[in-house]
Amino acid sequence: MHSRRDLFYLAGGIAAGTAHGQNPVNAEPLQYPQIGILLATTFTTGTLEERLDGAKACGLACVQMSMACANLPEMPDQIPAELPERMRREASARGIAIASMTGTFNMCHPDAEHRRTGLRRLRVLAEACRQLGTSAIHVCTGTRDANSMWRYHPDNASPESWRDMTACIREATDIARQANVILAFEPEMSNVVDSAAKARRLLDEIGSSHLKVTIDPANLFHSGDLPRMKEILDEAFALLGRDIVLAHAKDLDRDGEAGHKPAGQGVLDYDRYVSLLRKYEFKGPLLLHGLSVAQVPGCLAFLRAKLARPVRPPA
Is residue 315 part of a domain? Predict the structure, then answer.
């Protein structure tokens, strides 16, 4: 019996193999994790095809796709019928797999109507995933800040915020179940779920195989936490490791806020991060994030060097 996590990886592996022109039955085993990128946040201009050309030129294996890459809103009210297949076809023609879709909206917005609108748009995106060739949507748990879902608000820690966020996540997870996709939320210090412990609590409360985790270690360090880096990384994987389906690769140079540095240009212990991904048998994509086009080659070389090192279990 395969778990939903196993089936997600199997589907992703087949998609990646097909994107590279391989017969999925006879293909050589893929090397994990595959290195990709959040396409819209680095390749910020041009047509869909031009952005994918840029990713191909950098040697990236996969992308987290956004509807913004087709010059639509990131969470559109409707998606043109031909667009999902076009996205899949154009990515595949360049040997690139669509590993996930961006589906973030503020799930803890103080205005309930804002949350309902986000859920409606999430359904539109989820129902397009089969044609897109992906089964994962990256989401966030949001914040009480009404203007930015990435800005901390002091009410994030209130029982009312947790109540509203979990109610929204529950509805979103049911949408994912109906569309047969997985939502991957990210514990992020500016959001309501701002730690691995709260992420574990959310997973346990929702109790669905359609809700999993995106891990971005650069977003886990509250003020004063950097000296405890090993402990915080180990705890995050101990609590969440078996539920992680997407991994981000960026960096930080200080604690107290989300990391904004490109991978390898800060203080994140990437040797430990990679060893923990391996310890917990992560087979999803490792997605570059928070960098310019000019920074991609250096960050890609940095990650490849880390992944090429012999496997050493975390001490």
Answer: no
pTM value > 0.85: yes
> Which residues touch 280 (CB under 8 Å, ≥6 apart)?
237, 241, 242, 244
Asked whether residue 293 is domain-assigned, the answer is yes
Note down the domain range covering 187. 4-308
In a domain, 235, yes or no: yes
Question: Is 313 domain-assigned?
Answer: no
Distance between terminal CA atoms of the chain? 32
Task: Output the domain CATH number for residue 57.
Answer: 3.20.20.150
| 215-225 residue pLDDT tens | 999 999 999 99
Sign of CA dihedral 303, 309, 313, 315: negative
Residue with more model confidence, 130 or 254 = 130
What's residue 313's pLDDT? 65
Each residue of 18-51: pLDDT tens digit?
444 443 333 334 467 999 999 999 999 999 999 9
Residue 168 tokens, joined: 């929204």
Whole-angstrom Cα distance, residue 155 to residue 165?
Answer: 12
Q: Which helix (H) or strand (E) holds 181?
A: none
Q: Rounded CA gap, 67 and 12, in Å?
A: 20
Number of domains observed in the structure of the chain: 1
What lies within 8 Å, CB to CB, of 6 at 6+ separation is none
Both tokens assigned to 256: 């107290």
